[in-house]
């Protein structure tokens, strides 16, 4: 079956005074219909840029993006608008991602209005339907965003993203700004919508417990590159890349009897501007050798489990 | 909210539009200062309109014998250096000063907003080019620029307004641009892109409404500045021509007599101050009423 | 461990603290009768959601609530036997930064962008020099930088030249420069990435051990609490709902809110199709329910819960729980 989204060697560089910033560097993956790909990594690793590049909020520098098998990398004008309706995004910050001067219903109905395909009556009906779908009370139709709490605002963002019946939704840290009890409500909603509508998600987050819960496959990104990609369960059971291991061990566990044995990484993310050709994690990696200064290739170590590390056999 | 759940779509739409306008008006009416400002403006405008019927003396009639009279029952505000009745001149002058001030600011807002919005939204080279052009215009002293424009257009009421508004375009464009640059960083702009909003829609439906607060405040201040600038123009014979009275011109004429006859400067000065104060009250109230966050 | 010899009170003892804000003519009941205590060298975790009143408590201890609109309406905050709420502002100023320091959540805004990081540390040292104390603030600032793992050569750099984790280290250096007895850490790692969070938590832990500093750690992250704290207080709508040692609260969570909070976190070891969110929303702090603040969201609530404020009960393992249906719930949960 043709995957809904496939990206090949996708690159997104930003021009900065110091040279090109490699936000996304040679990323390849595909997501099948109804599945969720989790993308994890620390801030500045390019995970949000990756999502935004796929749905054409940024123009890609190089590589290809396929939607339903069709190359959409360089679409323009009307074709781009049509493709975009199939790909939507839910943003991290429920406070800044909704226009503060528009009522809830006008935010939700805006995609319908802009598409120009619906009559006024259809727009009103669909808006009401969307609002009940995401669980926003009809009475809040004329409320303004500041009158709503973070969880409800995020529901508004979800309703707006689903207005045009997309196939693929980029969820860019949709629950990071929410409290735990509300976070669970929104995660359940996202999962239910996925089941009911057969949505395909790319779920960007830094929260490992959330990504483990919601994803089928997981990509771990470090400075613009995917260092490890495999099915969700396998990643947690058998992380292979030294960075993944460190990342998993850094999560504070709520199990007080079995505190995780933590490997504390030295240093911080190096600059993504004009990176050296070798492994980008080498500077912080406890296993780094000279071989790591060469460009690293992505290797399939077992079916469906990809790692970008030349010392993987020695490390494990 | 008044309407019921089952109302048909168009009705809902209309109800929403109406309620939005009503909401702003209701908010505004709750603001006492704004209402005071509005009342003062309405009274001033009425007085100016009815001036020909209420002024006790001809505003241009000189009466050298009665020059420099201090305020009295005969001359409420006293008389000026040529014996003209200041009360009549202030009332009549309101017609020109208020219209010049408000109109010039309103006219300058339109190109100011368009230029500022384009520079602020598109950024990069477009922004660079526009800003450099504005730099050049602003490098010319404001007065000089107005003199040039006014002398090209010739003296007269409307030409004065045009000259005044052109010279205040760069200021409002700059302010809107700065506001736009800040506002467009918000994710709701990306959200608008992702749902296929056109650039036009993003700028005018999303960005502008969120950028207008400081514009409204600075515009009300701008009116005061414009009234005094208009005076400068008439002073050098390019603005509204004497003997037509005008507050700014009255101020500058009276400057030389400030020591002997302060009332010459006090009354037109008060008129300007009161107008500006009223506009500021109204502007502040309007800004708050337009902001849904400041409900209640 | 140096014992408190002045009085019988614990090192930090908060009794019945009540704080209100006035906003738009409405009274926001931010903190409603909070009791907390903390000994030297220990860490108390204050866990709760946005708006539960965590930060307000910390700011009340330091007395840095905004002058307009906020009011400490009652209660006592004893530090080392001295009631901070009765002190003159002059005396309070000597305590801030010297005896008590605070680490704020956002390292990006906690530093002055136009002053070098070294000078910012030195300033704090300088401000708290006693008469006759000849400590060189600059030397002390350099020493602090080294202690938090930043080379002293970076003394003359500005905050923008530092990454988020480094900035938080600088904030920690400022907070610890005067060897405070009490550290108030308000979500110190929330803005940081996990690997950096691990570094910073370790750093705070090491330094506290070294100087025997007591810490009130404010967080919403149960994992961080599990890793760092000795005692835990769970706060909801300005009221402590459950209070005990970490082991008691984590092993035998008793209040339905605490149980719900643990249940809502996706499990790292088990697969579950659906999460168990707590239904509903936190109550409006201007209009709190009469009885238990959690009762509108509580699946076990009865009329008894809604009638009047709930008092504190002792759980079987001896920790505090503000729930009158505790026994019944324990039976139901098995």
Q: What is the string of helix and strand elements of chain B?
A: HHHHHHHHHH
Label the structural class of chain A. alpha/beta
User: Which pair of chains forms the biggest interface, and how many residues does each contribute?
Assistant: A-C, 39 and 45 residues
- The name of the CATH architecture of the largest domain in chain A is 3-Layer(aba) Sandwich
- Tally of strands of chain B: 0
What does this entry look like structurally?
The complex is a heterotrimer of chains A (316), B (296) and C (334). Chain A is built from ten helices and twelve strands. Chain A has 316 residues and is an alpha/beta fold. In chain A, strands 6-7-8-3-9-10-12-11 form an eight-stranded mixed beta sheet, sandwiched between helices. In chain A, strands 2-1-4-5 form a four-stranded antiparallel beta sheet. In chain A, strand 1 (5-16) and strand 2 (19-31) form a beta hairpin. In chain A, helix 5 packs parallel to helix 6. Chain A starts with a strand and ends with a helix. With 296 residues, chain B is mainly α. In chain B, helix 1 (9-30) packs antiparallel against helix 10 (263-290). In chain B, 74% of the residues lie in helices and 0% in strands. Chain B has a single domain (23-294), classed as MetI-like fold (Orthogonal Bundle). By secondary structure, chain C is an alpha/beta fold. Chain C has helices at residues 54-62, 89-95, 107-110, 117-127, 137-147, 164-176, 194-211, 222-228, 246-251, 256-264, 303-307, 326-333, and strands at 12-23, 26-38, 43-47, 70-79, 82-83, 100-103, 182-186, 214-219, 231-236, 239-245, 313-314, 320-321. In chain C, the strands form two sheets. In chain C, strands 6-7-8-3-9-10-12-11 form an eight-stranded mixed beta sheet, sandwiched between helices. A four-stranded antiparallel beta sheet of chain C has the order 2-1-4-5, covered by helices on one side. In chain C, a hairpin with a 2-residue loop joins strand 9 and strand 10 (239-245). Chain C is globular, with a radius of gyration of 21 Å. Residues 1-6 of chain C have low confidence and may be disordered. The chains are: A alpha/beta (316), B mainly alpha (296), C alpha/beta (334). Chains in contact: A-B, A-C. Chain A binds chain C through residues 42-43, 149-151, 179-185, 187-188, 191, 206, 208-210, 212-214, 233, 236, 246-247, 250-256, 259, 262, 264-265, 268-269, and chain C through 49-50, 163-166, 193-199, 201-202, 220-224, 226-227, 246-247, 250-251, 260-262, 264-269, 271-279, 281.
């Amino acid at each position: 079956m043709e995957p809904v989204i496939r990206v090949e060697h996708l690159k997104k560089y930003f021009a900065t005074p110091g040279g090109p910033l490699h936000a996304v560097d040679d990323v390849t993956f595909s997501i099948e219909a109804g599945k969720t790909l989790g993308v994890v990594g620390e801030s500045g690793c390019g995970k949000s840029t990756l999502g935004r590049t796929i749905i054409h909020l940024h123009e890609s520098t190089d590589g290809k993006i396929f939607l339903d098998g069709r190359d959409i990398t360089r679409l323009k004008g009307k074709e781009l608008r049509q493709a975009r309706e199939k790909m939507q995004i839910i943003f991290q910050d429920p406070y800044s991602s909704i226009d503060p001067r528009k009522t809830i219903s006008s935010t939700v109905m805006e995609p319908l209005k802009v598409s120009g395909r619906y009559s006024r009556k259809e727009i009103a009906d669909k808006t009401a339907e969307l609002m009940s779908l995401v669980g926003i009370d009809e009475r809040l139709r004329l409320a303004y965003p500041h009158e709503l709490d973070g969880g409800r605002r995020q529901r508004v963002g979800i309703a707006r993203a689903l207005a045009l019946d997309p196939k693929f939704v980029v969820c860019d840290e949709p629950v990071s700004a929410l409290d735990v009890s509300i976070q669970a409500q929104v995660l359940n909603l996202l999962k239910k919508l996925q089941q009911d509508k057969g949505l395909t998600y790319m779920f960007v987050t830094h929260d490992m417990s959330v990504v483990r819960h919601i994803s089928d496959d997981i990509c771990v990104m470090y400075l613009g590159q995917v260092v490890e990609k495999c099915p969700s369960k396998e990643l947690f059971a058998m992380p292979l890349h030294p960075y993944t291991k460190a990342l998993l061990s850094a999560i504070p566990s709520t199990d007080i009897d079995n505190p995780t044995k933590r490997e504390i990484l030295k240093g911080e993310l190096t600059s993504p501007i004009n990176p050296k050709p070798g492994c980008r994690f080498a500077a912080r990696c406890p296993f780094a050798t000279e071989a790591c200064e060469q460009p690293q290739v992505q290797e399939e170590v077992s079916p469906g489990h990809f790692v970008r590390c030349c010392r993987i056999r020695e490390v494990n | 909210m008044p309407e019921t759940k089952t109302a048909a779509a168009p009705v809902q739409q209309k109800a929403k539009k109406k309620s939005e306008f009503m909401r702003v008006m209701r908010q505004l009416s709750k603001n006492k200062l704004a209402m005071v400002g509005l009342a003062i403006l309405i009274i001033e405008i009425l007085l100016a309109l009815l001036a020909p019927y209420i002024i006790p003396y001809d505003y241009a009639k000189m009466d050298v014998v009665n020059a420099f009279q201090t305020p009295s029952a005969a001359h409420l505000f006293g008389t000026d250096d040529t014996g003209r009745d200041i009360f009549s001149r202030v009332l009549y002058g309101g017609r020109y000063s208020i219209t010049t001030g408000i109109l010039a600011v309103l006219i300058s807002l339109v190109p100011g907003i368009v230029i500022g919005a384009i520079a602020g939204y598109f950024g990069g080279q477009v922004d660079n080019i526009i800003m450099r052009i504005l730099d050049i215009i602003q490098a010319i002293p404001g007065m000089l620029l107005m003199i040039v424009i006014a002398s090209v257009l010739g003296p007269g009421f409307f030409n004065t307004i045009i000259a005044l508004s052109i010279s205040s375009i760069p200021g409002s464009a700059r302010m809107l641009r700065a506001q736009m640059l800040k506002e467009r960083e918000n994710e709701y702009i990306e959200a608008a892109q992702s749902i296929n909003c056109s650039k036009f829609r993003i700028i005018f439906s999303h960005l502008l409404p969120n950028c207008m607060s400081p514009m409204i405040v600075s515009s009300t201040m701008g009116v005061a500045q414009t009234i005094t600038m208009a005076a400068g123009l008439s002073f050098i014979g390019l603005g509204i021509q004497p003997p037509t009275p005008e507050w700014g011109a009255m101020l500058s004429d009276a400057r030389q007599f400030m020591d002997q006859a302060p009332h010459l400067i006090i009354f037109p000065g008060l008129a300007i101050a009161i107008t500006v104060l009223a506009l500021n009250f109204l502007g502040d109230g309007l800004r708050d009423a337009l902001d849904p966050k400041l409900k209640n | 461990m140096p014992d408190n010899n002045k009085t019988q009170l614990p090192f930090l003892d908060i009794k019945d603290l009540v704080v209100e804000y006035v906003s738009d003519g409405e009274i926001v009941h931010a903190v409603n009768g909070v009791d907390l205590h903390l000994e030297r060298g220990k860490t108390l975790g204050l866990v709760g959601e946005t708006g539960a009143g965590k930060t307000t408590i910390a700011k009340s201890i330091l007395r840095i609530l905004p002058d307009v609109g906020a009011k400490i309406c009652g209660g006592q905050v004893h530090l080392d036997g001295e009631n901070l709420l009765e002190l003159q502002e002059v005396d309070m100023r000597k305590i801030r930064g010297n005896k008590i320091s605070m680490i704020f959540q956002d390292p990006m805004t906690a530093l002055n962008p136009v002053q070098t990081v070294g000078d910012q540390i030195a300033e704090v040292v300088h401000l708290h020099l006693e008469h006759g104390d000849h400590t060189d603030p600059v030397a002390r600032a350099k020493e602090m930088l080294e202690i938090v793992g930043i080379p002293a050569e970076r003394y003359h750099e500005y905050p923008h030249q530092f990454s988020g984790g480094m900035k938080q280290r600088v904030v920690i250096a400022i907070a610890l420069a005067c060897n405070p007895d009490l550290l108030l850490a308000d979500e110190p790692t929330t803005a940081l990435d996990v690997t950096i969070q691990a570094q910073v938590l370790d750093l705070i832990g090491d330094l506290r051990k070294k100087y025997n500093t007591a810490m009130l750690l404010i967080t919403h992250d149960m994992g961080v609490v599990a890793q760092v704290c000795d005692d835990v207080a769970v706060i909801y709508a300005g009221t402590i709902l459950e209070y005990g040692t970490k082991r008691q609260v984590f092993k035998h969570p008793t209040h339905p809110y605490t149980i719900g909070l643990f249940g809502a976190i996706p499990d790292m070891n088990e697969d579950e199709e659906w999460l168990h969110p707590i239904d509903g929303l936190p109550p409006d702090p201007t209009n709190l329910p009469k009885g238990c603040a959690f009762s509108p969201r509580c699946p076990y609530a009865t009329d008894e819960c809604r009638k009047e404020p709930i008092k504190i009960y002792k759980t079987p393992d001896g920790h505090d729980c503000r729930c009158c249906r505790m026994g019944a719930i324990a039976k139901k949960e098995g």
